[in-house]
Specification:
The chain is about 5% helix and about 55% strand. It has one helix at about 1-20; strands at about 20-30, 35-45, 50-55, 65, 70-75, 85-90, 95-100, 110-115, 120-125, 130-135, 145-150, 160-165, 170-175, 180-185, 190-200, 205-210, 215-220, 225-235, 235-245, 255-260, 265-275, 275-285, 290-295, 305-310, 315-320, 325-330, 335-345, 350. The radius of gyration is 20 Å and the shape is globular. The chain has one domain: YVTN repeat-like/Quinoprotein amine dehydrogenase (Methylamine Dehydrogenase, Chain H). A 4-stranded antiparallel sheet has the order 3-2-1-28. The protein has a 4-stranded antiparallel sheet with strand order 4-5-6-7, with no helix packed on it. A 4-stranded antiparallel sheet has the order 8-9-10-11, with no helix packed on it. InterPro entries: Cycloisomerase_2, Haem_d1_sf, Lactonase_7-beta_prop, WD40/YVTN_repeat-like_dom_sf. Keywords: Carbohydrate metabolism, Glucose metabolism. This is Lactonase family protein. It holds the Pfam family Lactonase.
């Protein structure tokens, strides 16, 4: 009887440990020691990372996106002749390549998927184009059916990120210093340009985050070391706030990278490459403005993408040059971060739960 109880207790503990572990996929650059997309187990109770494995051997999968049902995964393959790839997620977490299509521009750097899971959009940094692809029911990709070219005779585009929101498509163009809004045509899958904001100076809009209701947009500026806050109006959008991401005592060079809202949208986070920090902002839920409350070291070099785990209790940072992923605990009341530990992984660029 005692043996049975011990076995039951052990099984219960093992089940709980397994239930706390979720998959983390890591996109990388493969010019060095990295071989492609990696998977790790992340413990949502203590923030530990374990069981690092190569999910698939593939070239420069620098940015990743899930299908809504998490049966498929998508990546850009950032090279001179760029591609977008789709993968089936196997039962053991490894990936099987389904399709690989041209990105229709050099240097694809960002990929995202719409809410219904039937379209992806790819931003091509070097080519300055944005490509929209239909997704088949089996998760595979068709060729792009619409391509936007933001280049002009006098100005070079660097499309850096694009996201769907309901019937809208938003694009941050670092090269043209523009933030674009496209809308779906009536009874059509085609998008038309509806509105754009020309950013003042040369801040270099890179990534952005939308509030859940779509009323506020927060754009992190690569060159400006800043965040531009935008509010939706009846006539389009207007700037409501502008904040530095840097500590007031930092005087060195810096390039901002990524930006995310907390799960409850009370806090905003941005990454600084150069200062090598995460900037933490408290967000006013009424008017959408933000106020910086912390700059904390990433305990690594050149933080690119970062992410919050599904519980909202942890923040993880991909430090490209120092080849590590740093894990931070989020204070639920203040939003501030506390460093826990770092795990080595070659050239991490994108983290996906």
């Amino acid at each position: 009887m005692k043996i049975k109880l011990l076995l039951l207790g052990f099984t219960f503990i093992l089940f709980n440990i397994q239930a706390q572990n979720i998959h983390l996929y890591v996109g990388t650059y493969t010019q060095g020691d990295s071989e492609g997309i990696y998977q790790l187990e992340f413990n949502t109770e203590n923030g530990n990372l374990s069981n690092k494995q190569l999910a698939i051997n593939i070239d420069n999968p620098s940015f990743l996106a899930y299908s809504p049902d998490k049966k498929y995964l998508y990546s850009v393959n950032q090279s001179e002749n760029g591609f977008a790839s789709s993968y089936k997620i196997n039962n053991d977490g490894t990936l099987s390549l389904l399709t690989r299509v041209r990105s229709n521009g050099k240097g694809p750097c960002h990929i995202s998927i719409n809410e219904s899971g039937n379209k992806i959009v790819v931003s091509n940094y070097t080519g300055g184009t944005v490509s929209i692809y239909p997704i088949n029911e089996d998760g595979s990709l068709k060729e792009a059916y619409q391509i936007f070219n933001h280049n002009s005779l006098n100005e070079k585009s660097h499309a850096h990120s694009a996201k769907f929101f309901k019937d809208d498509l938003f694009v941050a163009d670092l090269g043209r210093n523009m933030f674009y809004q496209y809308k779906l045509k009536d009874s059509s899958d085609e998008f038309i340009r509806h509105f754009f904001i020309e950013m003042e100076g040369n801040p270099g809009p890179r990534h952005f985050e939308l509030s859940k209701d779509g009323q506020f947009i927060y754009i992190i500026n690569e060159y400006g070391g800043s965040i531009t806050s935008i509010k939706r109006t009846e006539d389009g959008f207007k700037n409501i706030d502008f904040d530095s991401t840097l500590d007031e005592n930092y005087k060195g060079k810096n390039k901002c990278a990524d930006i995310h809202l907390s799960k409850d949208e009370r806090f905003l986070y941005g990454s600084n490459r150069g200062e090598n920090s995460i900037a933490v902002f408290k967000r006013n839920l009424s008017d959408g403005t933000v106020k910086k409350i912390q700059n904390i070291s990433v305990h690594g070099d050149w933080p690119r993408n970062f992410t919050l785990d599904p519980t909202g209790k942890f923040l993880l940072v991909a430090n490209k040059k120092s080849n590590n992923i740093s894990v931070f605990k989020i204070n639920n009341k203040s939003g501030k971060l506390t460093f826990l530990h770092a795990t080595n992984l070659p050239a991490p660029v994108c983290l996906l739960f």
